[in-house]
């Protein structure tokens, strides 16, 4: 049984132990309260934070390969959405110092995932503040047990030659402090200093040439459009890099030189297809939401199976890339990146939509039609009881067995193909375009899409969506269900 101690003493001891300084005396706080340590996502209660809205991240880091070390600072421009005596950021690494508007702030780590910051002066609702966090650590040493991966999640990918920061649904806390939830999107500047002989690739567009000082070079990338934190990335290593423009859209393709020559050339040919694929998707879905496109291929992996991730403007592929995978990840630029999930349980809005666009690509390039695919895939799956038991509007938080389970992708894509049949191609195409345009730079829920679909159809669609997304058995083969 723990010994009872006064709460004030506990807080003081914790602050001194973790910051090395006594917390400054806050100004009159009035109704100011600590911000919540989570944004309210039912799957991941520690993700995101209450009381703040991040407008911009300026990430300025140095990465050393031997020994592995990430050091530097991240400066966040935040707006207080309530009166705050303190607020949290999501961060797994140890912290050296924190300032708020240039003034030293007290900080602590109440849990491995949370960085709690107490500014010298409380923030009033509407205040905009600059928060600078300095740190120095090896992210590969960090593991985090969360409701989505109770075995312990290790998201950092690096070896002696290369580092790539890419994973979903959590990645940011391994390399920068953040409000780590898709509901809070912000613009980014990412500046990485590392060995001068290596390439650095990140989101958006490169700002100028790398600045070389001695044997180190700093490369600056900028994402001007709002971005969810898990979609931010950088890669450093030796890459074969190609650049170009397709139909007015600049692209950057990069492939790790750790691959053999023939493999690397093959991957480069494929990832250079990002330009034409993005242009085709634009013809289907409306304006491309970002300033550049492309992709990066790496042999690194943090999980026991091949992955691809839709990092904003520049997806990352762990080997095994093919054209259909590129279509999927680039379709996410509209569905997942520009329009993000409001809760992680809404993941169907990302994966089902991107999977549907795979079949539209096949249809539009001489393969089977989406109607043909719907018919034969439905027949093949009709007897698979486990497939239909997954409610894709609420699949579950476990990243290995629920959130990214096959039905989220395939049952979701089948629902969209059936919806196209039900309301007609013209109305359906308009629905996707309008959805992408109306929610661009924001977030949405499954219920919001179902409402939009009902408006496009001109009548309620509750039974249709229940049959395709929720019911624990296959939909009946009726016209009302899109057959």
Task: Offer a concise description of the structure.
By secondary structure, the protein is an alpha+beta fold.
Write the layout of secondary structure elements.
Blueprint: H1 7-19, E1 33-34, E2 52-65, E3 68-80, E4 84-90, E5 95-100, E6 103-104, E7 106-111, E8 114-118, E9 128-137, E10 144-146, E11 149-153, E12 157-158, E13 163-164, E14 186-195, E15 199-202, E16 205-206, E17 211-213, E18 216-227, E19 234-237, E20 239-246, E21 249-256, H2 261-271, H3 274-285, E22 293-298, E23 308-309, E24 316-318, H4 323-331, E25 339-341, H5 348-364, H6 370-381, H7 385-388, H8 406-423, H9 425-438, E26 442-444, H10 446-457, H11 462-470
Parallel strand pairs: 1-4, 2-14, 21-22, 22-24, 25-26
Antiparallel strand pairs: 2-3, 3-9, 4-8, 5-6, 5-9, 7-8, 10-11, 12-13, 13-19, 14-18, 15-19, 16-18, 17-18, 20-21, 23-24
Helix pairs in contact: 3-4, 4-5, 5-8, 6-8, 8-9, 8-11, 9-10
Key features of this structure:
protease; Neutral Protease, domain 2; 9-stranded mixed beta sheet; alpha+beta; disordered N terminus; Aminopeptidase_N-like_N_sf; EC 3.4.11.2; 11 helices; 5-stranded mixed beta sheet; 483 residues; hydrolase
Please characterize this protein's 3D structure.
- The chain is an alpha+beta fold and 483 residues long.
- It has a domain at 345-481: Neutral Protease, domain 2.
- Helix content is 27%, strand content 30%.
- It has helices at 7-19, 261-271, 274-285, 323-331, 348-364, 370-381, 385-388, 406-423, 425-438, 446-457, 462-470, and strands spanning 33-34, 52-65, 68-80, 84-90, 95-100, 103-104, 106-111, 114-118, 128-137, 144-146, 149-153, 157-158, 163-164, 186-195, 199-202, 205-206, 211-213, 216-227, 234-237, 239-246, 249-256, 293-298, 308-309, 316-318, 339-341, 442-444.
- Helix 3 crosses helix 4.
């Amino acid at each position: 049984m723990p010994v009872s101690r006064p709460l004030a003493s506990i807080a003081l001891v914790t602050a001194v132990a973790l910051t090395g300084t006594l917390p400054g005396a806050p100004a009159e706080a009035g109704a100011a309260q600590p911000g919540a340590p989570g944004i309210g996502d039912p799957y991941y209660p520690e993700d995101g934070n209450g009381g703040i809205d991040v407008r911009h991240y300026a990430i300025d880091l140095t990465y050393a390969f031997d020994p592995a070390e990430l050091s530097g600072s991240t400066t966040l421009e935040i707006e207080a959405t309530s009166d705050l005596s303190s607020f949290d950021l999501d961060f797994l690494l140890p912290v050296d110092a924190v300032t708020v508007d240039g003034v030293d702030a007290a900080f602590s780590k109440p849990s491995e995932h949370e960085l709690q910051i107490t500014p010298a002066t409380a923030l009033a609702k509407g205040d905009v503040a600059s928060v600078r966090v300095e740190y120095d650590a090896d992210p590969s040493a960090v593991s985090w047990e969360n409701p989505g991966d109770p075995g312990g999640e290790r998201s950092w990918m690096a070896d002696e030659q290369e580092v790539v920061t890419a994973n979903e649904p959590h990645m940011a806390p391994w390399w920068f402090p953040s409000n780590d939830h898709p509901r809070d999107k912000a613009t980014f500047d990412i500046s990485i200093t590392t060995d001068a002989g290596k390439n650095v690739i990140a989101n958006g567009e490169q700002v100028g040439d790398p600045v070389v000082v001695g044997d180190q070079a700093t490369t600056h990338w900028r994402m001007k459009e709002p971005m969810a934190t898990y979609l931010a990335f950088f890669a450093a290593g030796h890459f074969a890099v190609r650049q170009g423009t397709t139909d007015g859209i600049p692209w950057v393709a990069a492939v790790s030189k750790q691959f053999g020559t023939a493999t690397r050339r093959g991957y480069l040919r494929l990832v250079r297809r990002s330009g034409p694929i993005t242009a085709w998707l634009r013809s289907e879905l409306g304006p491309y939401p970002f300033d550049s496109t492309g992709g990066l291929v790496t042999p690194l992996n943090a999980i026991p199976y091949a992955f691809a991730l839709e990092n904003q403007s520049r997806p990352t592929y762990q080997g095994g890339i093919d054209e259909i995978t590129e279509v999927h990840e680039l379709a996410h630029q509209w569905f997942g990146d520009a329009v993000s999930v409001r809760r992680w349980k809404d993941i169907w809005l990302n994966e089902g939509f991107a999977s549907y666009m795979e079949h539209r690509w096949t249809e539009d390039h001489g393969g089977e039609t989406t109607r043909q695919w719907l018919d034969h895939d439905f027949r093949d799956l009709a007897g698979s009881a486990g497939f239909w038991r997954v409610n894709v509007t609420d699949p579950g938080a476990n990243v290995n067995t629920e959130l990214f389970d096959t039905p989220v992708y395939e049952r979701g894509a089948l629902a969209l193909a059936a919806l196209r049949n039900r309301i007609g191609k013209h109305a359906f195409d308009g629905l996707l375009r309008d959805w992408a345009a109306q929610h661009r730079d924001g977030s949405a829920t499954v219920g919001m899409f179902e409402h939009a679909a009902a408006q496009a159809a001109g009548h309620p669609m509750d039974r249709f969506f229940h049959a395709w997304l929720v019911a624990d058995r296959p939909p009946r083969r009726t016209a009302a269900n899109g057959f």
